[in-house]
Amino acid sequence: LAMSFTSFAEISVLKTLSGQPFGYLLITSIQFENLYEMTEDEKSSKQHSTTVEEPMDLVRLSIDERIFVKMRSNRELRGRLHAYDQHLNMVLGDVEEVETIVEIDDETYEEKNTRTFPMLFIRGDGVILVSPPTETDTKIYPD
Number of helices and strands (H, E) in the chain? Predict the structure, then answer.
C-alpha cells in the first residue's frame, strides 16, 4: 500500500540534535488514505478475530491499543496505534518518546530525554520492534 496524504493542516519534521530529520513527523491534523484502519465491524468483532496466522496479524490486533515501539538511534515510543501499513509506517496517538544518550568515558554516562506528542507519524524503516507494552508500562500508562 502506498501512503498518500489527501490534505494536512500542519506537519512538522522533527530533527535530531545534529539538525538532521529523524524518521517521524509530528502530526497536528491529517487525513490519510491506504493505511489500515479498523472498521466499525472489525472493532465490534475484535475479540472474535484473535487468530494469528502471519506476523502482521499481531500488529493488526493492536489497533486502538497502547503499544511499545523500539526505534533506531536508541529511541523508544509508547502510544496508541491508530493506523499502519505493510512497511510498518504507523500513526500513534498520545505518544511518549524516550531517547537514551550513552557516552562512554572513564565512567559510563547515560541520559534520557523524554518528549510527548498528541499524534505522531512513524516511518517504518526506523522501526526495530513493535510489542504490547510491558506490565510496568501498563501500570504507568493505563488505558
Answer: 3, 7
Cβ-based neighbours of 59, under 8 Å, separated by 6 or more: 81, 84, 88, 130
Of 89, 77, 73, 75, the closest CA to residue 37 belongs to 89
pLDDT digits (tens, 9 = 90+) for 80-123: 999 999 999 999 999 999 998 888 877 778 889 999 999 999 99
Q: Could you tell me the domains of the chain? A: 4-140 (2.30.30.100)
Cα torsion through 41, 45, 51, 53, rounded to 10: 0
d(CA 130, CA 57): 12
Q: What is the pTM of this model?
A: 0.62
